[in-house]
Write a structure and sequence with these properties.
Elements: E1 2-7, H1 12-15, H2 29-35, E2 45-48, H3 52-61, E3 67-69, H4 86-89, H5 93-100, H6 113-130, E4 136-141, H7 143-153, E5 170-176, E6 179-185
Parallel strand pairs: 1-4, 2-3, 2-4
Antiparallel strand pairs: 1-5, 5-6
Helix pairs in contact: 6-7
């Protein structure tokens, strides 16, 4: 089975480099326009986070496919950092403490990263099992979701932050023997 992991198009918050997790922000006009500049592979199944930015992106890329949504792929709750950017958070003790932890500690009043990763992985596993007989599945999700899935199923030594990608980019890989292999950048 082949898998495409696509990060949603840009929102206004993304353009302003804000932590946009549980804020259900739609795509920006620029984000919609950028989607139409890329060609994505035709797929058998499209699974997306239930958040507007992912559902909109999936609908534009794959207008002829049913979009299956799953809340488990929703972005992390950034808690007190939600909606803010680096310049607004810089100098805050709680933000510096989080940075010093390499993003491993829970977001203040937000979601624990390990819990976030676990729910993304469980969602991925369920859809892989459900659609095991399909040739190509697209997951239109968030950057953190992609990073969580590939960290869990890539066995070549790469970690979470090695799978960061820009909006509308992502990864193409082969699912075989319970892991992602032949991982390459989508665009």
């Amino acid at each position: 089975m082949e898998i495409v992991l696509i990060r949603h198009g840009k929102t206004n918050g993304n353009a302003e480099k804000r932590y946009i997790g549980i804020t259900d922000e739609p795509l920006s006009k620029a984000g919609i326009s950028e989607i139409r500049k890329h060609n994505y592979p035709l797929v058998d199944v499209v699974v997306a986070s239930s958040m507007k930015r992912c559902v909109q992106t999936a609908g534009i890329i794959y207008p002829n496919n049913e979009i299956i949504t799953d809340d488990r792929f929703n972005e992390c709750d950034f808690g007190d950092f939600e909606g803010k950017n680096y310049s607004e958070l810089n100098g805050r003790a709680d933000y510096q403490e989080w940075i010093n932890s390499n993003g491993r500690m829970p977001f203040p009043n937000g979601e624990n990263m390990e819990d976030f990763k676990k729910r993304c992985i469980l969602g991925f596993e369920d859809h892989i099992m459900k659609f095991f007989d399909k040739n190509l599945i697209a997951f239109v999700v968030h950057g953190g979701t992609i990073m969580s899935v590939l960290e869990a199923y890539c066995r070549d030594g790469r970690g979470y932050f090695d799978f960061m990608c820009d909006n509308l980019n992502g990864f193409y890989c082969t699912w075989e023997e319970g892991r992602c292999t032949n991982i390459r950048s989508l665009l």
